[in-house]
């Protein structure tokens, strides 16, 4: 069956004559309209393949007005008019008709005109199809091209330009509060020239702060369907302060085409095109967007994946600094690096303060490696892990027969650390009676083995660490003031992870690389979603907790990207209740609760990496005996 045609003609007799001719020639008729309004109604009911259109119609609007609508809706049309004066012809030409037939015409003239219009339209559809195929190919090729993220975005933008023109383009501006904000703007400054703008450049151009720009983004401003805003609709969206209004005011824009997409992980990502012309955007372009949307989305998806793994590689390189293995570059960590550089070369004692899992041992190790003692022993003693009776012999060694069970002579940690560094972890837990002895060794630089009479000279640098408030310990009589002064010569406080969130992605990638290598897995990235969750979490267990969670995610991940992280959910209310409860409990009860909570987190695992003993930083057998002593049974852990 041939095309369906709408006849728009105010003279009924003429319209009916045309209808007869067309039906005889095998065309279908969708309707006959006498005015523009009637025509629009009929088009709404059934979209015709062609419209035959008189210029002067009933009502105020003319065929020229209707032609403009048809052009934007991509409906081909041919004028039929008795008026062929220059003015009418010029106005008609502006609407790009497929033909113009002057009345009266012969039957043959009408059919030939329609035949030519059909041919031209089919030809232009064909050309459009070829152009779109080319565009799809181009989008695909951008993925493998060399270049940075904004360069590739610009390539996509310029590829679109010949289909959907723009003077200003904002890509991916759906969530500028996102820490991994990937948005960019491009201002067209010449035929093939664009000025690229990120958030910072935009802040410079508009004279607004980054925070003020962020505040302009409405939380629910993500559109779901593509839409054109022109004239009143454009004025409407520019009424309230918003990013779109800011773009419009700053770059004199007058119409807007929004092309929103949802990526595979349902995250929004849109192309917002703006033009200085009020009539730049048509429904034809919206339809084009619908057709190429999938290719566009695939390209962006690939580019985002590339970006994530590039970021990973970059982060990997950054860890190879002189503070080898210490990941992060937040200003708080950079301060720590400054302190390390100052103190490492000397023999000064260092006291490292910070919550559990903030990297105190790592920093101690780094100080040792940056000192002249590098290559000499780095010996660690955890003062909390051993009972008071054993610490002394651990530190200073013992002679054979010094006490029951001392069957052999034993060299203590001080002697083993000779010419090197002794790291006293959890020094705040050291029994008071031993603190005196430690102080003496630090002052006199010699030790006596337990049960021995000789003094032995030792050359040891002390680095101590604690997660306790030593001043409070001193005030409460649990820590000697003189030892405190001795150790506190050069204190370095490590910030908790929640105060240096910008280091979280780098640390995440660092542990991902480490554990995927260990597990023989090939992982290339962490999904945005997981990174966002990590950034939002409060990290009570600091870097150690992050490390364990990433280790677990690496082991559980099935694809090349970490898509899941099992963060504990602690509500604020619970937190405060816990704190109140804790205040009422004895130290033993608190210890019991803490061990149970750690065991629960590890599903009752005591041994192995990431298991309770490691988190608690005690020997698995010590943990087992503690559990026995505190009456912690297996059912507590489920
Ligand atoms: N900046 C860092 N970069 C990379 N890894 C780190 C960093 N800081 C800490 N880690 C890792 O996090 C884990 C915990 O760090 P570490 O044992 O040094 O913490 P800590 O403060 O000594 O803990 P605790 O007080 O419980 O003894 C270790 O596996 C360590 O290697």
From TrEMBL:
Location of the Response regulatory domain: 4-118
Gene Ontology MF: a single term: sequence-specific DNA binding
4-aspartylphosphate: modified positions: 54
PROSITE patterns: RESPONSE_REGULATORY, SIGMA54_INTERACT_1, SIGMA54_INTERACT_2, SIGMA54_INTERACT_3, SIGMA54_INTERACT_4
Nucleotide-binding listed as a keyword: yes
Keyword GTP-binding tagged: no
Gene3D superfamilies referenced in this protein's UniProt entry, alphabetically: 1.10.8.60, 3.40.50.2300, Homeodomain-like, P-loop containing nucleotide triphosphate hydrolases
Any one Pfam family match given in the protein's UniProt record, by short name: HTH_8
GO biological process: phosphorelay signal transduction system; regulation of DNA-templated transcription
Segments forming domain Sigma-54 factor interaction: 326-555
UniProt KW keywords: ATP-binding, DNA-binding, Nucleotide-binding, Phosphoprotein, Transcription, Transcription regulation
Domain of life, source organism: Bacteria
CDD domains in UniProt: AAA, REC_DC-like
PANTHER family registered for this protein in UniProt: PTS-DEPENDENT DIHYDROXYACETONE KINASE OPERON REGULATORY PROTEIN-RELATED, TRANSCRIPTIONAL REGULATORY PROTEIN
Protein name: Sigma54 specific transcriptional regulator, Fis family
Lineage of source species: Bacteria, Pseudomonadati, Bacteroidota, Chitinophagia, Chitinophagales
């Amino acid at each position: 069956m041939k095309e369906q045609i709408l006849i728009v003609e105010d003279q009924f007799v003429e319209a009916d004559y045309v209808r007869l001719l067309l039906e005889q020639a095998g065309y279908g008729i969708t309707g006959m309209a006498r005015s523009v309004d009637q025509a629009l109604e009929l088009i709404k009911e059934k979209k015709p393949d062609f419209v035959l259109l008189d210029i002067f119609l009933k009502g105020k609007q003319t065929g020229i007005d209707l032609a403009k609508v048809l052009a934007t809706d991509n409906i081909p049309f041919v004028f039929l008019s008795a008026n062929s004066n220059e003015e009418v012809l010029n106005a008609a030409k502006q609407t790009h008709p497929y033909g113009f037939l002057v009345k009266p015409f012969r039957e043959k003239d009408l059919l030939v005109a329609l035949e030519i219009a059909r041919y031209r339209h089919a030809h232009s559809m064909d050309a459009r199809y070829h152009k779109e195929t080319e565009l799809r190919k181009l989008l695909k090729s951008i993925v493998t091209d060399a270049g940075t993220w904004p360069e590739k975005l610009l390539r996509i933008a310029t590829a679109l330009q010949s289909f959907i023109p723009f003077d200003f383009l904002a890509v991916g501006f759906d969530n500028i509060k996102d820490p991994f904000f990937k948005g960019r703007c491009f201002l067209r400054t010449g035929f093939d020239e664009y000025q690229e703008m990120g958030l910072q450049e935009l802040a410079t151009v508009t004279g607004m702060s980054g925070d003020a720009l962020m505040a302009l983004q409405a939380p629910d401003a993500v559109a779901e369907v593509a839409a054109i805003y022109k004239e009143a609709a454009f004025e409407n969206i520019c009424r309230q302060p918003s990013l779109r209004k800011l773009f419009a005011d700053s770059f004199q824009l007058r119409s807007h085409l929004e092309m929103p997409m949802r990526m595979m992980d349902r995250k929004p990502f849109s192309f917002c095109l703006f033009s200085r012309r009020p009539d730049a955007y048509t429904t034809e372009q919206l339809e084009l967007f619908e057709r190429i949307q999938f290719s566009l989305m695939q390209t962006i998806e690939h580019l985002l994946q590339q970006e994530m793994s590039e970021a990973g590689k970059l982060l990997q390189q950054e860890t190879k600094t002189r503070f080898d293995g210490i990941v992060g570059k937040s200003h708080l960590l950079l301060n720590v690096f400054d302190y390390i550089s100052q103190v490492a070369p000397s023999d000064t004692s260092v006291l490292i303060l910070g919550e559990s899992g903030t990297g105190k041992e790592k920093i101690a190790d780094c100080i040792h490696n940056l000192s002249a003692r590098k290559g000499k022993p780095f010996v660690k003693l955890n003062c909390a892990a051993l009972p008071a009776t054993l610490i002394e012999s651990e530190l200073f060694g013992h002679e054979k027969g010094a006490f029951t069970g001392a069957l052999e002579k034993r060299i203590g940690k001080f002697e083993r650390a000779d010419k090197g560094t002794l790291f006293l972890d959890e020094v705040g837990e050291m029994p008071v009676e031993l603190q005196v002895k430690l102080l003496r060794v630090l002052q006199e630089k010699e030790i006596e083995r337990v049960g021995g009479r000789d003094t032995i000279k030792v050359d040891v640098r002390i680095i101590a660490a604690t997660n306790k408030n030593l001043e409070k310990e001193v005030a409460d009589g649990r820590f000697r003031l003189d030892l405190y002064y001795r150790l506190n010569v050069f204190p370095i406080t490590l910030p908790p992870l929640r105060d240096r969130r910008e280091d979280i992605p780098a640390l995440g990638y660092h542990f991902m690389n480490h554990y995927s290598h260990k597990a023989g897995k090939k992982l290339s990235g962490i999904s945005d979603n997981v990174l966002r969750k990590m950034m939002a979490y409060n990290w009570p267990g600091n870097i150690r907790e992050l490390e364990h969670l990433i280790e677990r995610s690496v082991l559980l991940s099935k694809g090349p990207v970490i898509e899941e992280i099992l963060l504990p959910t602690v509500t604020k209310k619970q937190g405060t209740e816990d704190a109140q409860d804790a205040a009422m409990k004895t130290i033993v009860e608190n210890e019991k609760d803490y061990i149970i909570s750690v065991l629960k987190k590890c599903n009752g695992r005591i041994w192995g990496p990431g298991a309770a003993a490691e988190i608690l930083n005690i020997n698995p057998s010590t943990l087992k005996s503690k559990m026995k002593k505190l009456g912690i049974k297996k059912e507590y852990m489920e």
